[in-house]
Design goal:
Helix content is 32%, strand content 18%. The chain has helices spanning 54-57, 63-73, 80-87, 132-141, 187-200, 241-245, 257-267, 271-287, 341-352, 357-369, 372-375, 383-401, and strands spanning 2-8, 11-19, 22-27, 47-49, 95-99, 155-160, 165-169, 175-179, 208-212, 218-223, 227-228, 234-235, 238-240, 299-303, 306-309. The strands form four sheets. The protein has a five-stranded antiparallel β-sheet. A five-stranded antiparallel β-sheet has the order 7-6-8-10-9, with helices on both faces.
Length: 402
């Protein structure tokens, strides 16, 4: 039988076991800490699966990172146990997974402790001393020790205040650097602009921006919200919707927006407020042409005693990158395109999320007052692309606001 130790912060919570095709998780009899995943009550009998457990599957790398992991560790794509073993010390959130007798978790977690904000950084234009090739190839040359989901190339980094620049690290970073995928030039600038617009529209987003690489193209950078404190040792619960629904990451497009509202009602400490936030973000994503907000792009975090929607991430105008992109990655009333005010506001806002008239009007006002016409043309996007972005936003705002 194979066995992995599962930690919550620095505390050993239980073991993940594998015998032939069966996987099982068991809490330690004397474990008194937070549940490993929301819904995994400590009093529950051992959990069993005849496939790799979805909650742990959601912690594994995807895309370019997965390819680099497989090559560097000589693993098979189907060997998810081996993948988890390789990167289990530096996962998203406060869970660590380590083999018996090998190493200790990096992080710690204190139940009820509220995360503290880092001192904000303001990187200079020359604050990224790497070429695009160096960033993309980094995990091909260094043994991949951390995991992040998403198909884009990305690396972990810290920020040196003495050198005024980012420094790439193998694990335990405070920031994520994301060059544009080769197939989608300009995606980094697109994401930086869309996140800026989200903040202007009243949506909570992490500190982020875009810097030129040493050879010119832009690289999107974003602060991690699942860790804080000295050496990033304080870890925060963070679970995406695939994990919360206990479905594998490969199912991330097989869902609907109505289910997000149900999960928020089931798990959030202040569901009425979080449903308003959900409604707000769904409207914003539609207005900005984001057709890729799948289940893994929605997460819940633990902030002290509260379970809330995580700050928004992976916001970008995918319509500019993929011409035939659906309007929504998840269905709404069984539709992914042809959305309108009746579906978005009357059905999703009022009926599904239960948002009252006052909050609906406030949300629409926040979208209306964002300085779209100044921010989009003033971005790092090429003029022609910026004009396309602005035209799409104006068309959808007119449909939404009238």
């Amino acid at each position: 039988m194979d066995k992995l130790r599962v930690f919550v912060g620095a505390q050993l919570a239980g073991h993940l076991l594998r015998e032939k095709a069966v996987h099982r998780f068991e809490y330690l009899a004397d474990y008194k800490g937070p549940p490993v995943f929301l819904g995994w009550d400590r009093t529950h009998p051992p959990r069993e699966w005849d496939t790799f457990p979805p909650a742990f599957d959601g912690l594994l790398p995807e895309g370019v990172l997965l390819d680099q992991l497989l090559a560097k560790h000589k693993l098979d794509r189907a060997d998810k146990w081996g993948q988890l073993t390789a990167v289990g010390q530096d996962l998203t959130g406060f869970v660590s997974v380590l083999p018996e007798g090998e190493g200790q978790p990096i992080g710690r977690s204190m139940p009820g402790e509220s995360p503290r904000k880092r001192v904000a950084i303001a990187p200079p234009e020359d604050g990224l001393p790497y070429t695009i090739a160096e960033l993309v190839a980094y995990h091909g040359k260094h043994k991949l020790r951390m995991s992040l989901s998403g198909v884009q190339p990305k690396v972990s980094a810290i920020y040196s205040r003495s050198k005024h620049c980012f420094e790439v690290v193998e694990a335990n970073g405070s920031y994520i650097l994301k060059p544009s995928p080769q197939a989608f030039p300009g995606a980094a600038e697109n994401e930086a602009l869309t996140m800026q617009l989200a903040r202007a529209a009243g949506i909570e987003v992490p500190l982020c921006g875009c810097l030129p690489a040493r050879d010119g193209p832009g690289v999107f950078w974003i602060e991690r919200f699942d860790r804080w404190g000295a050496a990033n040792r304080n870890r925060v619960r963070c679970e995406d919707m695939c994990q919360l629904l206990e479905v594998p990451s490969s199912w991330k497009y097989a869902g609907n927006l109505e289910t997000l509202a149900r999960v928020i009602r089931e798990h959030c400490s202040n569901p009425k407020l979080q449903l308003v936030k959900l409604f707000h973000r769904v409207l914003f994503c539609w207005v900005t042409g984001n057709g890729d907000m799948h289940l893994k792009n929605w997460s819940l975090v633990e902030k002290g005693p509260l379970i809330e929607l995580a700050p928004a991430y992976d916001l970008l105008n995918t319509k500019l990158l993929i011409n035939d992109e659906d309007e929504s990655a998840l269905t709404l009333a069984d539709r992914k395109s042809g959305l309108n005010r009746q579906l978005l506001v009357d059905y999703f806002g009022r009926d599904v999320c239960g948002v009252n008239e006052k909050m609906i009007e406030k949300t629409l006002h926040q979208l209306k007052k964002a300085d779209w016409n100044r921010t989009i043309p003033g971005s790092h996007l090429p003029v022609e692309i910026a004009l396309q972005y602005d035209a799409l936003v104006m068309d959808r705002l007119e449909l939404l606001l009238g």
